[in-house]
Amino acid sequence: MRLFYIVLPVLAILVRALPVHAQSVQEIPNAMSAHTVFIIVITAAFLTWAASFSLYALKERTNKQKERQILGTLREKILDELAEVETAREAGAISEGRYKNRFKTLRGDLSRVIDKLRTLAPVKKKHARG
């Protein structure tokens, strides 16, 4: 009978601790909440980096295309000047010394422009043969 007096209050306390009889529901802390926040922050940082990288690559490609166009136009102008100098020499409008100096400088300019164009040329991908 003494056991009954000890067990009954313990059972009453346990029954009151059940969620049905509890006056306020206690929330259990989520152990993954910090992990979830970390994953969200890392994902946002990666997406920000990927967006900035693609914008940078697009900017570089656009700049190279513009520079290629400018160098192409410059190459055409130099070739036109070379043709004019050659025509002027054949017509006798300029002296032989002046022709040689001008022709030499234009050839050097053309060489530098072509070298720059080669460095800016897009790299062609090699296709795997199967």
Which features characterize this protein?
77% helix; 130 residues; rod-shaped; mainly alpha; 3 helices
Describe the structure.
The longest helix has 59 residues, at 33-91. The model has no long low-confidence stretch (mean pLDDT 82). The protein has three helices and no strands. Helices cover 77% and strands 0% of the residues. It has 130 residues and is an all-alpha fold. The radius of gyration is 41 Å and the shape is rod-shaped. Helix 2 (33-91) packs antiparallel against helix 3 (96-120). It has helices at 2-17, 33-91, 96-120.
Amount of helix: over 70%
Largest β sheet strand count, sense and barrel closure: none
Distance between the termini: 90 Å
Percent range for β-strand residues? under 5%
- Show unreliable segments: none
Q: Find the count of extended strands (DSSP E, 2+ residues).
A: 0
Tell me, briefly, the overall form. rod-shaped
- Helix/strand/pairing class, anyone? mainly alpha
Give the SSE order as H and E letters: HHH
- From the alpha-carbon coordinates, what is the Rg to the nearest angstrom? 41 Å
Number of helices: 3
| Average pLDDT number | 82
Summarize the helices and strands and which ones pair or pack.
Blueprint: H1 2-17, H2 33-91, H3 96-120
Summary, kept brief:
This protein is mainly alpha-helical and 130 residues long.
